[in-house]
Amino acid sequence: MSFTQSILEGNRLALARLLTQAENDSAEGRAALTELFQYTGRAHLIGVTGAPGTGKSSLVNQLALYYRKNTDKKVAIVAVDPSSPFTGGAVLGDRVRMRDLSGDSGVFIRSMATRGALGGIAQKTASLVQVFDAAGYEIIIIETVGAGQSEVDVARLAHTTIVVEAPGLGDEIQAIKAGILEIADILVINKADRPGVENTERALRSTLELAHPTKRVVRHHGATMSMAAPTIDSTMWIPPIVKTIATEGKGIDELVQSIAKHVEHLRQSGDWAARDHARLGSEMDLLIREALMDRFLENIPQKKYDEMIEKVANRNISPYEAIKLLLNGNLK
Amino acid sequence: MSFTQSILEGNRLALARLLTQAENDSAEGRAALTELFQYTGRAHLIGVTGAPGTGKSSLVNQLALYYRKNTDKKVAIVAVDPSSPFTGGAVLGDRVRMRDLSGDSGVFIRSMATRGALGGIAQKTASLVQVFDAAGYEIIIIETVGAGQSEVDVARLAHTTIVVEAPGLGDEIQAIKAGILEIADILVINKADRPGVENTERALRSTLELAHPTKRVVRHHGATMSMAAPTIDSTMWIPPIVKTIATEGKGIDELVQSIAKHVEHLRQSGDWAARDHARLGSEMDLLIREALMDRFLENIPQKKYDEMIEKVANRNISPYEAIKLLLNGNLK
User: Which residues of chain A neighbour B51 with C-beta distances below 8 Å?
Assistant: First the structure.
């Protein structure tokens, strides 16, 4: 049986091998992904993001458990840890997480320790997601840590983005600064047994109204808008706020219901296809940039490139001038 | 007087205009930066990063105040807010921050609301920093929010990277996950009057030893290493842990001393030049990628590109195949 055939038939060892190849962006990985691409497009991609300390990992754990207990869908988890430029991240994640889900062959967990390269996280995550999608994992949860640009980029990969907050983690200014509320399809207040949960909910509601001014307007004019064509339906989704206590499994059923409603909304509004399209478009954009850079570096002697950086470092020439010289000397 | 001349002579309006041009990466901005580049390389770039809620902004505020009161150096602050894909961030930052520093013509504060483009944050920050450097700001503080990849990238810009923690913000696993400890030249425990400060310090010390195994070894063999050549000096820097209460201005003098020691270390070890070199190298890398992509998009009809994405979205062709076709059809 061929390598890709093994993956389609659920061989976990082959899957693990391809995941590694995809993460390393190896030639074998690209070849297999090219073959397998036709089998993708079936999975529901769920992004889970939020600041450290919100209990994201527990929530992802519980979500996976819920889907495994109540559906026959296979679940993949891609945990994107922020890059450590020296040793790579993902130190304890797997072990902590595996406790509840280990032994279930319908679950596959992959922690990703990304290393440095700009655009690397989004591109590698996209590849891993494609592998899982082709391998028949119908629920793929992408968990990202933190609240930076890379998280926003990764969230763009998902059909449904869940932003996790917790009571008592800084004030409203922080929430606005973080800016990721605006990418939320569903808001979760985890650790909802903690004091301050009402304040967090109030702050989230007012921030939501700042972040989605068009949606607030839509809500005010609900009666009129309900007669409009389904094409404007995409503006009608108001992110619900779901309270959970992940460590006790509380609120997970409600969260799963909200996710299902969002899927229904995506299907009816045409946003499912639109997000798919946008995601593949930005993936291609990244791949083209890489390919162009590779080609450029192949065509230029390393020594000439280093000399140019040296000139820039000595302030003999500006970066823009250096690049003009490099590009015109080699690709004109 | 020419535009660039005005900037060199300290005209704040001209400076503000060029900052906007640099952030928008406009042709005028590039031209002015090209002219001004020869005047850069004098500033000390200090990166300040850490999770939300650690009080970074107050700390940056206090640092700037300290340098203004105790030196004759001009201070610039570049606050990098995470991107909001919809409205742009940086909502309240300026106003909150300006209270203490406003009215001092030796201080210039710039909040940056970055928008989406991969690599955009690092590239734009590099441009703003160059502008301030040319304009004679000898201390440039780059403040980043969050703990993601983009923060690591921005930290790479700095000569000295300060990572800010605070007591009671999650546990050791979170600290390891965040992974940014490994980029720290100086660790600050802010809000050091809060309970749990000893635990935070202990956790940081043990994480530091995980993060810098080579440094621990160096410390163990200190007697032997002290006879070695100064070129290996760069492994000798053990990130100090400084406790501060920024809102009361406590610990700032100690922090400034640590920064000064780090500068001395950078100068003696040759790391100052090495970091400068590496920074300009990655800046050029980003600029080349942009230039290559611009050239590619100029040479390909939008319609053909869109059709290709459509084929990929319909799973008629894989992304890798699509890119091969696009590249060979246009740049061979």
Answer: 51-52, 146
pTM metric for this prediction: 0.73
The sign of the torsion formed by the CA atoms of B112, B273, B179, B226 equals negative
Single-letter amino acid, residue A219: R
Q: How far apart (Å, rounded) are the C-alpha atoms in residues B152 and A226? A: 46
Contacts of A296 in chain B (CB under 8 A): 288, 292
- Is A318 in CB contact (< 8 Å) with chain B? yes
Q: What value of ipTM does the predicted structure carry?
A: 0.78
Tell me the per-residue pLDDT of B215-269, one tens digit each, with 9 for 90 and over: 433 333 333 333 333 344 445 888 999 999 998 999 999 999 999 999 999 999 9
- Alpha-carbon span A210 to B143, nearest angstrom: 25
Greater pLDDT, A87 or B261: B261
Q: Minimal Cα–Cα distance from B16 to chain A, Å?
A: 21
CB contact (8 A) between residue B288 and residue A318: no
CA B189 from chain centre, in angstroms, equals 19
Q: Domains in chain B, start-ordered, CATH in brackets?
A: 40-289 (3.40.50.300), 300-331 (no CATH)
Do the Cβ atoms of B102 and B12 come closer than 8 Å? no
CB A153 within 8 A of CB B32: no
